[in-house]
Amino acid sequence: MSTVEGEDAHLLAAAKPPKVRRRRLRSILLALMAQYTIVGLSVAGILRYVVTPQIVAKFEAIEAALKRLPAP
Questions:
Q1: What pLDDT, on the 0 to 100 scale, is given for residue 64?
Q2: Helix boundaries (H) for the chain
Q3: How much is the pTM?
Q4: Any idea what DSSP says for residue 70?
């Protein structure tokens, strides 16, 4: 009986898929996605609160300057 159990153990050991590699790849991809998400949110925040008010101020200044021009 011990030889049969030993043979079964060898067959089971050979039949196992390499799950460690998939888990490692999944964790690496998850980490990269998290970093890109954080960077994307940071860029969106900078655009929303820093760049957009500057652009709006420039357009308002242009609008005010055009209103001061005499009408043709």
A1: 94
A2: 2-15, 19-46, 52-68
A3: 0.48
A4: P
